[in-house]
Write a structure and sequence with these properties.
The structure is a single chain. This protein has about 240 residues and is α/β, with parallel strands linked by helices. The chain has helices spanning about 10-30, 45-55, 80-95, 110-125, 180, 200-205, and strands spanning about 1-5, 35-40, 65-70, 70, 135, 160-165, 170-175, 185-190, 225-230. α1 (about 10-30) packs across α2 (about 45-55) and α2 runs parallel beside α3. The structure holds ligand LXAUTJHC.
Length: about 240
Amino acid sequence: MNLLIYKTEQELFGDLAAFIIATGEKAIAEKDCFNLVLTGGNSPKKLHQKLVEEYKDKFDWSKVYFFFGDERNVPPNHENYNGLMAKTSLLEPLGIPDRQIFYVNTALPPEQAAAAYDRAINEHFNGSDLAFDLVLLGMGDDAHTASLFPETPILAEQNPGVASVFVEKLDTYRISMTAPLINKAAHVVFLVFGESKATALSKVFDKEIEDTETYPAKLIRPINGSLTWYVDEAAASLLE
Ligand SMILES: O=C1O[C@H](COP(=O)(O)O)[C@@H](O)[C@H](O)[C@H]1O
């Protein structure tokens, strides 16, 4: 596990964007495509901006397939739809055609949407191991990641796939990759910044705490891949 702590957001996003591109170039050189899982929420917007500004014309985006680690159960034109945030801040500015983007179909009921997304991933991988090249994750103030929220049944899921989950405290369904699927990736990266994340981060990093029900981000432990945390000083302020 690597922990990278940055003084400024600018340095953080610059390094993370460079890591994504280097990982993509390696994957493309090895197997002619790059399977990248995007994270939702607000945190990735500046990262997307950086990728567009710095790498729009310096990287072969035609070889990248984009997936979503989780999705909110709202229509695709809703401001909370993770796919819309990525479309606006990254995919449209880069000119990525729809055939390279795997959106979650929230027109379906959540369970069916999860099953359809699971099928789409399996079809894309076409019988080979379901190992993404890179999974980007955020973390909420409550230590949830993707839509693996504290005390929800999806945390016990052993199947590497996609599931729907009712999140009581939000009174809504979410659709999320399970921890076993994320943990099959070659690289997993957390992007965490801001003071509001400091307590959760310190709990997730506390080796004495094994409680994954309360701190679901602890479930992320790639089997063979790397795990890197990109955090700023404010989020890292309570780390020992
Ligand atoms: O609801 C969600 O929240 C987490 C964290 O979001 P952030 O804006 O606080 O970084 C995010 O990782 C997840 O994809 C999203 O659906």
